Amino acid sequence: MDSSMKSLKVIISFFLIILAFLQGFAFGKTTLAVYNLKSATLLSEEEVSILTNHLTALITNSGKYDVLDRGRMSEILQEQGFQQSGCTSEECVVEVGQLLGVQKMLSGSVGKFGKLFTIELRIIDIETSRIELTSNYYYEGEMEQLLTEGLANSLNKLFSLSPGSVPQVTSTEKPSVGSITINSDKRDTRIFLNNIYIGTSPQKMDKLQPGKYSISAKLAEYQDFDTTITLLESQHPVIYCSLEPIYGLLTITSSPSGADLYLDTNKIAQLSVKNKKMLPGEYTFDVRKNGYQSVTLVTKIVSGQLTSESVSLTKIRREKMGIENTAVERVDFSVKGQTIDIRYDLTGNPKTKYQVSVVLLRRDQPDFQLVPKKVQGDIGKGKFAGQNRSIIWDFTDEFQMGTNVADYYFQVTAKPVKNRTLLYGGIGSAIVVGTVVAILAGGESEGKPIDLPPARPN
């Protein structure tokens, strides 16, 4: 049973070969088969198959050869038990041509060097095993052009014909249109299709014919977004443009050096700042250094430009309070939910008690003042000097700060507490003690009268 089936396959294959051979003579044309193109790792097997089928269609439409159908070609080779994988030499291609019963074989390869694509084609005579025609075609462009232009131009060169003489494969049916939707992560982004302005994002272009389209997105102070898309039939892709800002550079120096730079109450650097990348816009900085008055610096950062600033700090003159100097330094604050944590450093005698108070001020409104009421922590009487002191303010019912926190700042003051009651008590005690001592001393005298103070008037 197996031997009879094998014999039947051989007979069928023989008749297919004879039929393919006779077809060429019936029409008076040279018979030719197209062998799979080679492409190392540049293309996938599916892409190579598409190119090979397209090449076959182009040669068929040229009318120059009687081209063997690729489906029949695969069937014959399968019946003969021939494995195409690994068949790359000219001798192997000639062997395939002999199995197929054709007079000529067309083989070739597709490669790429840098940005340059290469298409190499050759026609081999099966009877003599000689290469009759060969051509190398080079072009620079997208890979899709291999299918739409490259193969036809390569055949033109192979057959020494004028450009365009090899007809392209066209469909009688009207291709289905598609659409492209373009979104951006920035408002007012200008969208261009094939270098033509179509409006701001988002944009949707309907009824587009299949083909290649260039897309650009532009916005001031941001890098341009450019891409190319090949739109297929009935395809509706969505393009998302993510724009990268064109940063500006900031350099700030302080005199004296060693100051800290704050933005929105957050320390971002220690001066001097050199070529720090910043997003374009206007910024308000606080320049602070212990023992010096803080300076508010307003500067504008421009895309692609260097902004240089220099800050001179004034030393704080501490007023003498008794025998010591006192100063409040480095006042910071942070918003935590419905509370504000105000931090400060208090320098002074560590044994002295201070009365600490705080007031909220606004940079753009000199007359604005608000004394927080619902506060706790290192505020009020009896507070001692130290670092990183904290005042917690529950501002829910007293103030609505909003989102522009940088407009506000706190002023913390501290004054030594002088306990007059204690002082008077001390003096009184001294008077009493003096009196007692005087009495005791008089008790030891020898009967000398004691001079009493004059009576107080009634």
Q: Give me the secondary-structure category.
A: alpha+beta
Intertermini distance: 153 Å
CATH superfamily assignment of the largest domain?
TolB, N-terminal domain
Sheet of most strands? 5 strands, mixed
Describe this structure in words.
With 458 residues, the chain is α+β, with helices and mostly antiparallel strands. It folds into 4 domains: 2-158, Rossmann fold (3-Layer(aba) Sandwich), CATH 3.40.50; 178-241, Immunoglobulin-like; 248-312, Immunoglobulin-like; 320-420, Immunoglobulin-like. It has 6 helices and 29 strands. The chain has helices spanning 2-27, 45-62, 70-79, 90-100, 145-158, 420-443; strands spanning 31-34, 66-67, 104-113, 116-125, 130-140, 178-184, 190-193, 196-200, 203-208, 211-218, 225-231, 238-241, 248-255, 260-263, 266-270, 273-278, 281-288, 295-301, 306-312, 320-321, 324-325, 327-336, 339-347, 354-362, 365-370, 375-377, 380-383, 386-394, 408-416. A hairpin with a 2-residue loop joins β7 (190-193) and β8 (196-200). The longest helix has 26 residues, at 2-27.
Main attributes?
458 residues; alpha+beta; Immunoglobulin-like; 4 domains; five-stranded mixed beta sheet; four-stranded antiparallel beta sheet; 6 helices; 22% helix; rod-shaped
